[in-house]
Amino acid sequence: EPEVTQTPSHQVTQMGQEVILRCVPISNHLYFYWYRQILGQKVEFLVSFYNNEISEKSEIFDDQFSVERPDGSNFTLKIRSTKLEDSAMYFCANQRENEQYFGPGTRLTVT
Amino acid sequence: LAKTTQPISMDSYEGQEVNITCSHNNIATNDYITWYQQFPSQGPRFIIQGYKTKVTNEVASLFIPADRKSSTLSLPRVSLSDTAVYYCLVGVPYGGATNKLIFGTGTLLAVQP
């Protein structure tokens, strides 16, 4: 079964630094999502992406965040200036038909 | 979006059947009920989805009464590896440019030997 992959699995960065989280979605899946999960808390929707543009974003997804598909296959989430509270698991997801397929996540630790 | 309510945690033993009930009193006509499973430090995984009555797949069954204000996920003969958080979600799962998933706190199922 095809899988969503994410890199890196763990990223440690200092406050104020930029990070880029990468996702390789399942081919032919057109709807893309980023979610995050702070340790011990709920999975939270960040942004959805379709047809090379943002479809919807949550209040969390402020000007520090951006998404793009730089080469038509990879899907990236950039945080321009990380804050301590950005420490979380970040999950990429694809939708096909009525299911969303989640990647294994990137654990981001901001120190 | 319809709000869901489910127990925070449940305990079970290996080999038992586990039923997790979810309340969704404000479910809309076009909403489906979907359950996801999440293991620690992993992404959620789709388990089952239904609109009404009963749905069964190789992993679980989903029972939805006629009024659709609640649903029950049934896991037959659980094993230790079924220990996870189970999320009940309500919404339209397809057809739009965005079908974001709104997760609640879920039910932590702990299966003991």
Q: How would you portray this structure in words?
A:
The complex is a heterodimer of chains A (111) and B (113). Chain A has 111 residues and is mainly β. Helix content of chain A is 0%, strand content 54%. Chain A is built from no helices and 11 strands. The mean pLDDT of chain A is 92. In chain B, 0% of the residues lie in helices and 46% in strands. Chain B contains no helices and 9 strands. Chain B has strands at 9-13, 18-23, 32-38, 45-50, 53-56, 61-64, 70-75, 84-91, 107-112. Chain A binds chain B through residues 4, 31, 33, 35, 42-45, 48, 50-51, 55-56, 58, 89, 91, 93, 95, 97-105, 107, and chain B through 32, 34, 38, 41-46, 49, 87, 93-94, 97-106.
How would you summarize this macromolecular structure in one to three sentences?
Chain A is an all-beta fold. Chain A contains no helices and eleven strands.
Low-confidence stretches of chain A: none
Shape descriptor of chain B reads: globular
Helical residues, percent of chain B: under 10%
SSE pattern of chain B, N- to C-terminal: EEEEEEEEE
* C-alpha Rg of chain A (nearest Å): 13 Å
Using only C-alpha atoms, the radius of gyration of chain B works out to 14 Å
Major sheet of chain B: 5 strands, mixed
Supply the number of helical segments of chain B: 0
Report how far apart the termini of chain A are: 37 Å
Strand order of the largest sheet of chain B: 1-9-8-3-4
How would the global form of chain A be characterised? Answer: globular
Q: What is the N-to-C succession of helices and strands of chain A? A: EEEEEEEEEEE
